[in-house]
Automatic annotation (TrEMBL):
Origin superkingdom: Bacteria
Keyword vocabulary terms for this entry: Membrane, Transmembrane, Transmembrane helix
Record's protein name: Uncharacterized protein
Residue stretches spanning the membrane: 6-28, 49-67, 79-100, 112-137
Length: 140
């Protein structure tokens, strides 16, 4: 199975994006030590944002590897290829940005990014999953 050049580029971008997750981990250690003041809501949302970023970026890498072998039609391929990486940006952004400020008591309107990201995740997973099943059935 040959990996396409555009897949290699996206793979590289996603790997470099994991550096931001690493710096997010350092940020969380500072929050945990009390160096950065944060209330309970912020701590929970920061942890959730960090975890979602890492897991979704790794899932994105896995999906990319198999999509080149599936040869999905162009429109489906774009949704399958970018749905999860877009979610990996939007969902953590929703968690982090919705609780910025001094002692917020509830998330702000930027929490909508979380739900837009969840929609992107669902579309990406659905398209990739169905596309891979169809490709497998056609290949057998």
């Amino acid at each position: 199975m040959a990996i396409q050049p555009h897949t290699l580029i996206l793979f590289g971008v996603l790997l470099l994006s994991l550096i931001t997750v690493e710096s997010g981990g350092w940020f969380l250690t500072r929050v945990g030590r009390g160096s950065i003041p944060a209330n309970a809501l912020q701590k929970n949302f920061f942890r959730a944002g960090h975890a979602h970023a890492a897991v979704l970026l790794m899932l994105s890498l896995v999906i990319l590897v198999v999509l080149d072998a599936a040869h999905l039609p162009a429109g489906y391929d774009v949704v399958a290829r970018f749905g999860v990486p877009v979610a990996a940006l939007l969902m953590p952004a929703g968690f982090f940005l919705s609780v910025l400020g001094k002692d917020p008591q509830r998330p702000n309107r930027l929490l909508a990014l979380l739900w837009i990201g969840a929609g992107s995740l669902t579309l990406g997973l659905l398209t990739a999953g169905v596309g891979l099943i169809v490709a497998g059935v056609q290949a057998s």
